Each structure stands twice: as structure tokens, then as C-alpha cells.
Amino acid sequence: MPDIVIPVVDFAHFEDGSSPDAIEIGKQLVQACQEVGFAYFRNTGIPQAQVESMFEWSRKLFSLPIETKMLAPHPKEGWKHRGYSGVGREQVSQMVFDPSELAAIRKQTPDFKESFDVGRDNCPRVSNVWLPEEVLPGFRDAASAFYNTCRQFELEKLLPALSLGLGLPGGGEFLGNYHQDAENQLRLLHYPAMPTEVFASGERGRIAAHTDFGTGTILFQDDVGGLEVESPRGSGNFVSAPPIPGTVVFNIGDFLMRWSNDTLKSTLHRVRAPPNDGTGMIKERFSIPYFMSGDRSLLVDCLPGCWDEDRPKKYEPVTPGAYIDMRLDANY
Question: How many structural domains is the chain composed of?
């Protein structure tokens, strides 16, 4: 089979989701999610200046001494995804069916990255873990504002587009009704520079092949690159998803694939080190994913239109909270 081409979905004319253009954009998005599980988004309404500013805050944050960053430590519980995690703290786990039960397979080598996780400020169950304001003045306000910007795009355009494209009841409001009180996660990621020989064998990358496990992910990349997507699903062959100026990357998560009865694909992806540029060092990389999940306590069954007598439901109803916690705990 030929390599996949990751499509570009343009939200320029989505407006409030009530126009024929919005329905067509939704159909394009769903087609991308069915065939690839990934798409580039253009004209999201997320200001590019705010994106660039958030990357600058990320550089400032990760350039702090380790003892300073540890003033905002990630809690010991894996599901409390907030605050700073140092290099080697997290191991991305891939969940597989074996054959009827879900088993977590850990990598032998921890991911060579560090991260800082932020959620909504008014979440009673999972509080944010911030650095003291005097350590990095303005960071808290900037990170919270960027989280809110991503959240606005999710609720006003992304989830409505998916709902319209799937033809769900209630027009563009269906999926949004399941994401009103979500515990989403904005993650600042830093992959430190390393000597070329660390990656020379090709056996080690920056993050091993995995799928995300919520509703979906919006990803902002710097210009270093390294993201790769499996093509076609299950083949073991990966194609590059390079940064495209003015776009963000979107991918489906495992929970939405389950929710859609496997109508939409949660595709394996990984981050590899860029080619040797002759300096003997692999450049550092920054990225900012925004992970979306449904409201914790709502019992979720198969989406309407994604099952019938000829295509019965594959999965039992489940709450997003139980599913996400299981997956987060597998990473720590």
C-alpha cells in the first residue's frame, strides 16, 4: 500500500458551525480521521503570536536549573498530570489487546524528555502545580491563557466539526456536551540536545511508537521536526509529519476510536531524532501538545451511527475518567 498523505483541513470558513461550509469541513475532518487518524489544521483562530510566545516561555522554563524546576514537582500519582517531570520520569506505554484483555507494555528505556503539565485553574480534583511566581514571573498567566485559547478552539470549532462530520444528533453540539467539565492537559515538552551516537543505531528515538488515549490531541511543533506517523496502520512503516508553517497537527485518541466503534483511527506515532547535521549533536526540540478528554463521570456508549446489526458494538460502555486514569498510571 502507498504511504499515507496527511491531509490539511482549513477552518477558515467554519464560522459558528451552522453554514454548509462548516458541514463540508466536518466531513473532510472525519474522512481524514477515518483514513489516517491525523490531519494538519489551518486557520484555527489560535493566534500565531500566542503560539510563538508559549514556545518562548517553554524555553525559559526548561532552561532553569533542575532544583528550581523541582519546586513544582509532578505528584507521585500518575493520573495527577500536573507540574514538572524530569528526564526519565515518564515512560510512554502502549496498550494492546492480548487477546481479550488490555495489557500495558512498558519500554525498557525511559523517554529522554522533560515536561510541564497544566490544566484548567478551577479543577477541584486535579490542581495545577505552579512554580513560585518570582521564579518565572508571568509564566502562570501565559500558560493558563494558552490553555484557554486551545480550549476555545476545541469547543467552538473542533468538536462541532467532528459532530457535524459524523452526522451526530443535535448538529455540532453532540460531542461538546460530553466535554463541558473535562480535565484536559496542556503539556510543554523539551527534548534536550544529545550526542549523535546516542541515536546512531536507529534503535532509540525521543518517544517510542504509541497512540494517545483521550479524545484527541492538538500538537504545536517547533521547526526541528521528528514526528512520524505509521502508514498504513499496522504496517510498522512510518512517514514524516514535518512542521508546516501556520498549521497545527491533530490526531484521534484511543478513547474516541473506541467511542466511534473503530470508525475513527487512533494511529501509532513516534518522535525520532533529526538527521546528523555534522556538529556531532542532535538539536534540542520543543513541542506543545494539548490533550482532550471527555467529562470524567459521564457513561459513554457507542456513538450513534457507528454501529448497526451488521456492525455490532465492540466495546462496553465506560466513563472517560476510569479509562484515562488507567492509561496515565501505566506511564509512571
Answer: 1
Q: Rounded distance, CA 177 to CA 98, Å?
A: 33
From the CB of residue 48, how many other CB atoms can be counted at a distance below 10 Å? Answer: 10
C-alpha cell at 228: 512520524
- Poorest-pLDDT segment among 13-22, 124-133, 210-219, 226-235: 226-235
- Name which of 67, 47, 73, 84 is nearest 190 in CA terms: 84
In a domain, 221, yes or no: yes
Neighbouring CB atoms inside 10 A of 59's CB total 14
Question: What's phi and psi for 70, nearest 5 deg?
Answer: -75, 0
Q: In angstroms, how far is the first alpha carbon of the chain from the final one? A: 37
Domain membership flag for residue 169: no
CA 272/CA 114 separation, integer angstroms = 16
CA-nearest of 286, 294, 290, 54 to 150 is 290
98: domain CATH number? 2.60.120.330
20 within domain boundaries: no
Q: Up-side HSE of residue 292: CA atoms within 13 Å toward CB? A: 24
Residue 14 domain-assigned (yes or no): no
DSSP letter string, 143-197: HHHHHHHHHHHIIIIIHHHHHHHHT-TTGGGTGGGGSTT---EEEEEEE--EEGG
Q: Which amino acid is at 128?
A: N
Backbone dihedral angles phi then psi of residue 292, each to the nearest 5 degrees: -105, 140
- C-alpha 268/C-alpha 111 separation (Å) is 16
The per-residue pLDDT for 108 is 46
CA distance 237 to 104: 22
Domain that holds residue 225: 49-149+176-329
Q: Is the dihedral of CA 91, 150, 49, 74 positive or negative?
A: negative
* pLDDT of res. 111: 62
In whole angstroms, what is the distance from residue 113 CA to residue 255 CA? 25
pTM of the model as a whole: 0.88
Spatial contact of 182 and 147, defined as CB atoms under 8 Å apart: no
